[in-house]
Amino acid sequence: QRQLVESGGGLVQAGDSLRLSCATGPRTLSSFSMGWFRQAPGKEREFVASIDWTGLKTYYADSVKGRFAISWDNAKSAVYLQMSSLKDDDTAVYYCASRWSTIAAITAHEYDYWGQGTQVTISS
Distance between CA 99 and CA 104 in Å, rounded? Predict the structure, then answer.
């Protein structure tokens, strides 16, 4: 069982930047990849970004490409989502997720563990 803990959410204005963090839990001998998803009120959870174990392969939803960046810290103890040029449509609860695979995925059902979420609200 892995416990993921997100932080960094908050209320910002349109055009601002924000960085979300996800603590990935105790070190493990197994490799894993990470993803970020979000869920806006009245909408289904959607993919935002993912990163493989090496950090060399990243994937982004079209809606965030060029504005968001996912990355690991050096020890693989945290994954970050740097968000820039934020828009009203980015308002959502953001979740990090992990899967027991070195390969990143873009669909929610491929992930094994989820954090509790952190609220991001963009005001225009």
Answer: 8
